[in-house]
Amino acid sequence: MKVIIDLIEDIRESIANAETYRLMAGLLKEDGNDPSKLVYAGEAPINGYTIDHEAKQLRFFIDGSENEVLIGDLIPELLILDMDAMMYELRLDVNAQFSDMKIVGFGKNDEEQRYVIFIKI
User: Which residue from 17, 7, 19, 13 is spatially nearest to 92, judged by alpha carbons?
Assistant: First the structure.
């Protein structure tokens, strides 16, 4: 389970809070030949996020709009959260079929200035 503080630390360590990086969702699937391995299956831009204090979650979503979340939009809002909120779980809503997905890892693409949060199906 990944939480907000994990995200903040990884963004700081891997891209030094570079504000122009776009936030992307990356999809990992189990390898058909070896279920212990994961295969990259593509990515899509994250269109928004909400902080759900009742559910104690930071929820990212993809809605097909033109909106893109930049690291420079996300990080300042997260840094002002209190310590309890830093432990909120990260979740991603891709569509009706794949909603409430757990974030399993993070990555980056320096050439295209993308920061990726990965989900597994």
Answer: 7
| pLDDT digits 0-9 by tens, 4-58 | 999 999 999 999 999 999 999 999 988 888 878 888 888 999 999 999 999 999 9
How high is the pLDDT of residue 19? 96
Three-state DSSP class for 82?
A: coil
Task: State how far the Cα of 114 lies from the Cα of 29, in Å rounded to an integer.
Answer: 20
User: Cβ distance 107 to 11 under 8 Å?
Assistant: no
Question: Closest Cα partner for 45 from 67, 27, 73?
Answer: 67
Comparing CA positions, the residue from 90, 114, 103 lying closest to residue 27 is 103
